[in-house]
Amino acid sequence: MAFTIKKNDTSPQIAATLQDGAGNAIDLTSATVRFHMKKIGASTASTDAAATVIDANAGSVKYEWVATDTANAGTFQAEFEVTYTNGGVETFPNDQSIAIVITEDLA
């Protein structure tokens, strides 16, 4: 999964359907979801914020950018982290990261 956005843009939002290894949607009922993003090569996340569950039964989530998220151009990696009501934590995707490219503005 890859996503490209221009520097300083806050739209479009990034959305995903969280699935298990067999392609089945993850039930997010009563779960909380966070969006993490860090620049390639960085040691800490530049974004660690709440994501929105769009449809819990369908595993559908989104993250709405804020201006500081896209203030710097570059290549980033991102993930959605789910905390279930039983305290379990699971990260999606679990076998890679979402590639985020923030490109320079022309003006």
Describe this structure in words.
- The structure is a single chain.
- By secondary structure, the chain is mainly β.
- The chain has a single domain, classed as Immunoglobulin-like, CATH 2.60.40.
- It is 0% helix and 46% strand.
- It has no helices and nine strands.
- The strands form two sheets. Strands 1, 3, 4, 7, 8 and 9 form a six-stranded mixed beta sheet that branches.
- Strand 7 and strand 8 form a beta hairpin.
- The N and C termini lie far apart (28 Å).
**Shape type:** elongated
CATH fold call: Immunoglobulin-like
Give the H and E element order.
Answer: EEEEEEEEE
CATH class reads: Mainly Beta
* End-to-end separation: 28 Å
CATH structural architecture: Sandwich
Radius of gyration: 14 Å
Helix content: under 10%
Query: In percent terms, what proportion of residues is strand?
Result: over 45%
Low-confidence parts, pLDDT < 50 over ≥5 residues? none
As for the number of domains, it is: 1
Number of helical segments with 4 or more residues? 0
Helix/strand structural class? mainly beta
The whole-number mean of residue pLDDT values reads 96
Find the count of extended strands (DSSP E, 2+ residues).
Answer: 9
Biggest sheet statistics: 6 strands, mixed
